[in-house]
Amino acid sequence: MKEYLEPVFQLLTGLGWLVFLLVMMRARTRLRSAGGVLLKLAMMVMPLGFLIIARGGAENTLNKASTLWLAGGGTMAVSLLLLATGVWLLAGREAAAKD
Fold this sequence. Notes:
Elements (H helix, E strand, L loop, with lengths): L4 H23 L6 H25 L3 H37 L1
Helix pairs in contact: 1-2, 2-3
């Protein structure tokens, strides 16, 4: 099962960058506010986390891989915080526009 880790996370890395590029081509002008910038950063950081986890999956021992898996998990957590903050800011802006 370990031999699947690296290729699966490399595929997720490529898919993450593809989604990021498609969103930037379609919605770049609508994401100029602070919340939009945070969403763009979250979408850039997520594939980086996948790449770090893929590198950890390529290591031979758990001792060598654990630091990369922790770094990948930390990157995913940062991406989640950026995403949540961006959505919160955009939702607040939408609510203020309705009032």
